[in-house]
Amino acid sequence: MLLQETVHPLAETAARFVWWLPTLPLIGFVINGLLSLQAATKLGPADPSADADHAHAGHGAHAHDAHDAHAHDAHAHDAHDAHPPRHRYAAITSIIGPGVLIASFVLALAMFFAMRGVEADAPFVSRLFSWMPVGDFKLDAALQLDALSMVMVLVITGIGSLIHVFSVGYMQDDPGYPRYFAYLNLFVFFMLLLVLGANYVVTFVGWEGVGLCSYLLIGFWFSEQANADAGKKAFVVNRIGDFGFMVAMFLLFAHLGTLDYTAIAANAGTLEPGGAVVTAICLFLFIGCTGKSAQIPLFTWLPDAMAGPTPVSALIHAATMVTAGVFLIARSSVLFSLAPVASLTVALVGGLTAIFAASIGLKQWDIKKVLAYSTVSQLGYMFIGVGVGAYTAGVFHLVTHAFFKALLFLGSGSVIFAMHRAYHATHNHGDDAQDMRNMGGLKAMMPVTWTLLWIATLAIAGVPPFSGFFSKDEILSAAYSRAHESTLADASLLGMSGSTVLYLVWILGLASALITAIYMTRMMLYTFHGPNRTDEKSRPHLAEAPWVMTGPLVVLGVLSLFGGWLNLPEVITHMVPLGPAETLEHWLEPVVGEATARVSGGAAHVAVSTEQMLIAGAIVIAIAGIAIAKARLKPEALLTKDASEPSRGFERILERKWYVDEIYDALVVRPIHALSRSVLWKGVDVGLIDTLGANGSAAVTRFAGWIGSQLQTGRVGTYAWLLVIGAVVVLRAFTAGN
Amino acid sequence: MLVESLTLSAALFTIGVIGVLTRRNAIIVFMCVELMLNAVNLSFVALSKLYGATGQVFVIFVMTVAAAEAAVGLAIIIAIFRHKKSVNLQDINLLRG
Amino acid sequence: MIGQEVLPLFFTFHFYLFGLVALVGAIIFVTRKSPVAAAMWLVVVMFALAALYVMIGAEFIGMMQVLVYAGAIMVVFLFVVMLLNLGHPSELGDMRGRFGRIAAGFVGLGLVAQLLALSRNALTPELVLPVGAALPAVDQPGGIIGPVAAPLFNEYLLAFELTSVLLLVAIVGAVVLAKKRSA
Question: To bridge A559 with a disulfide, which of A403, A405, B22, B80 should be the other Cys (CB 3.0-4.6 Å)?
Fold first, then answer.
């Protein structure tokens, strides 16, 4: 490669250790994995179903009805052994699991400071070995360190470290403790591979790997059918998206002959702007993104993924993995900026997903389900950002969302932990520890969690000066200004002009901002305010989680509060001197600057007065949402889960998630089932393959075998005869040649 | 003398083969095999006049292997005889399915 | 190489004599019904071959032939025959029927024809040796042992060592197989 001929300015800095970033978690995975194997053979009952009752600390979205059946057993057991022993290697795992992550984070920080010191036009690429040299096509196992991957690495290792530390407390009594950390470390390894990959294939390996870890961790408590099914669903739905990703790679290779990011960026100009090829590539890439990042139509797996332990939901299904799609589009910004139709599709799908998921979030009772739909909705926001060509805004929201959504999930984990502990102490196995109708008034018992969750709620609702306000506002103002004037506005999608589509997306974004504020306030009110609805026996046992769990929450709270300072808009810094403006924008300039400029067509921002109005509107909407929720919802009047009546009408539609799962079941799953059963199984498999293929070849083989068996008399003499005759024939053939 | 040696070797080898094919006493069959090995040894020695002493080195190896083979083979025959009270190859048909 | 040049006629005569003995002995060996008689005739063949080796200048192999084959292997054969009390002609039909013998004869004819054809090829070194390879000299003043020992302990040292392992395995295997089962 041309770039390698001159020594890169980062080559002598900490960046040369870039391979250690993913290697450290991999080492953690190997050690923890070995420890978990050891335990399975030596320690107590290896059958996780036998241990399921010990794992009260962190049963995620368990089907708690299943617990009723064991209630008696668990009772008897608890009477003898109130505190099940920790895993024998828990101490080692507690050091290694979070330790490798913190080491990775420190290394990433060193690289970050090294990068700040140098001016680098080209990304720093570190080649490990030549992976697939096939003819002209050359593919390296290489990592690429640039501004974008640096941001992602910092988020992954930073938030990852906090969540690992939190997990030490959350999972402490789980019998699968080392296995949990092994999976978590493996996940971080693949995630770092994904963001650091120097070509689409390395990224794809990470992409598949995080999918695998997601599957493993969703089904972490696999002894219950619902959890295993949720894992399978996530895996299968993601495969559909991966298909799109692969087709996009094939197209890229067919038309550009390379999959290296640097080479693609250099050669993208040869593709016709707005042409069919680049549009198809981008649309197929986006199909991949809809799978991984849970957008319409492939979002259904993410809410089910809440079956995993709550820290997993925070790390994988909120902060990092699900944002991989946003990262991928930002990484491919060169291509997307050439494909206005694809970009408009991304923005429109993002907008629709945002409002659709937000509406479902309005009527969920499971605290984690609320957050899951909120995640889907916020991911929609990020796609609006990258769709309208504001790649920095999309990545900015990715980062702030990682802060406050990780905080929300870990906070809810802390609540669930407390509920579980209380139920465990009083042997209450009937009530659902995740249902908000069983909570209420937790503010008094858990003041730290309460405070921090309010910070996160205000951040996600978009109240200044919390981080979410800045990132969300930037996306919305970008959508508005692009609708006003950009290359996207000149294109058209589905018969509508690009401008119309973008105004529509902007309105969808505003509306979902309002709904977001409402459902988040609702969650806070029902969980922490009003009277406590937990049963009387369990109530005294409700208490704040240990410091190993609240500590990471505090850090995340600070980040959620001040995350907006990463990229303050100029219009605000002009009015209020908060600090340097648009830091992230400048940081990401080498990666996405060219693409952003191409989309915006030079007109960077709308007039200052318009922008001020947009900001004011956003603030009004956020506060209005909170106020509406506060006025309309009465936590005092809420009944417990068992006492509630089923909802009716539109509420019921929302509670049942617009019946999307049922519709998919009827339209996709059942027809495929029927087709597989009647045609593929009964017809092709039984009729064709079994008769002709399996049984047919078996009959032929059997006949040939029968002939052969006639030669096998079992008498040594016969064999001697055959041997000699054969030898004569061979000799004859040998001498005949001469 | 080379041609004569090789001809004799071929004749001895064929006699060994015919013995293996026509006899049913396992021990005699075994001796026929030894005869065949000797015929091959004769070829080696005869051709070593032409191609160098390596042929004779191979004869030494053949002898060693033949000795090992005789020891193990005869032990097998003893084991079979103890089991079947016979060394007739017609009776040794355990391979028969 | 003592005297082959001096007394060529002596060597040639004995070569043909022992060749004839070996051939006739082999035919008698293969037609004997009694295993003991067959074994004794095989010993005759072995001795004749040993003499033959000496006549064509491979004295060392001739010695080995007497020691290993006639002296050791055949003794083991006789020992087993006597151990199993198989000395008298076999009670069952030891020989195949007429058809079998005729068929064996034909196969044997075919085999000997092919072998002879093959040995013609072996006599033209150009067909066997790589192009340009010189024929190594065998006749050396120091006798035959040197030329035989040199490759045995240089090129083929590993194979030579392995044969000792093979013999050890054979000993152990023979003991295990022939031992009476205690259980």
Answer: A403
| SS3 state at C170 | helix
User: Which residues 6+ apart lie within 8 Å of A505 measured at CB?
Assistant: A347, A348, A350, A351, A384, A387, A388, A479, A483
- Mention the CATH class of domain C1-93+119-131: mainly alpha
Nearest by CB to residue A716, choosing from B17, B92, B97, is B92
Tens-digit pLDDT profile for residues A359-368: 988 888 889 9
**Min CA distance, C114 vs chain A (Å)?**
6
* pLDDT score, position A514: 93
User: How far apart are alpha carbons A542 and A266 in whole angstroms?
Assistant: 59
Task: Return the SS3 of A144.
Answer: strand
Residue to substitute from C119, C128, C167, interface B, most B β-carbons within 10 A? C119
Q: Which residue has the tokens 């922490």?
A: A528
Tell me, what's the pLDDT at C4?
A: 58
List of chain A residues whose C-beta atoms are within 8 Å of the C-beta of residue C107: 721, 724-725, 728
Top residue of B32, B40, B42 to mutate, by most chain C CBs within 10 Å, is: B42
Residue type, A345: T
Cα dihedral: A164, A165, A170, A176 (round 10): 50
Q: Do A738 and C127 touch (CB under 8 A)?
A: yes
Complex-level ipTM: 0.90
Shortest CA gap C6–chain B (Å)? 17
- Core vs surface per residue A597-612: b (16+ CB within 10 A) or e: ebbbeeeeebeeeebe
* Sole residue written with tokens 């208490």: A543
Half-sphere exposure of C144 (CA within 13 A, CB side): 22
Contact A715 B94 (CB under 8 A): no
Q: For residue C118, what is the nearest residue in chain A, using CA coordinates?
A: A735
pLDDT at residue A511, as a whole number: 93
Subunit contact B67:C170, Cβ cutoff 8 A: yes
| A36/B58 Cα distance (integer angstroms) | 57
For the domain spanning B2-84, the CATH number is 1.10.287.3510
Q: Token pair of A690, please? A: 């079994």
Percent of chain A with pLDDT over 90: 29
DSSP 3-state assignment of A18? coil
Task: Note the residue count of chain C.
Answer: 183
Q: Which of A87, A16, A12 is nearest to A48 (CA)?
A: A87
Nearest to residue A403, comparing CAs of A323, A333, A510? A323
pLDDT per residue as tens digits for the range C86-138:
766 555 556 667 888 888 889 889 888 888 887 777 666 655 555 555 555 55
Record: contact A724-C115, CB cut-off 8 A: no
Residue with the two structure tokens 């390296």: A140
Sorted by sequence, the CB contacts under 8 Å of residue A255 that are 6+ apart come out as A271, A277, A281
How far the first Cα of chain C sits from its last, in Å, is 58
Q: Where are the domains of chain B?
A: 2-84
pLDDT for residue A439 is more than 80: yes
Encode pLDDT of B2-38 as tens digits: 888 889 999 999 999 999 988 888 889 999 999 999 9
A715 touching B, CB under 8 A? yes
Q: Which chains touch C (3 or more CB pairs under 8 A)?
A: A, B
**pLDDT, tens digit, 9 for 90 and up, residues A371-413:** 999 999 999 999 999 999 889 999 999 999 999 999 999 999 9
DSSP A121: S
Partner residue facing A717 (CB), from B89, B94, B96: B89
Asked whether the beta carbons of residue C147 and residue B74 sit closer than 8 angstroms, the reply is no
Pairs of residues, one from chain A and one from chain C, whose beta carbons lie less than 8 Å apart: 24
Contact list in B for residue A721 (CB cut-off 8 A) is 21
- Segment among A189-203, A336-350, A603-617 with least mean pLDDT: A603-617
pLDDT of A164 reads 92
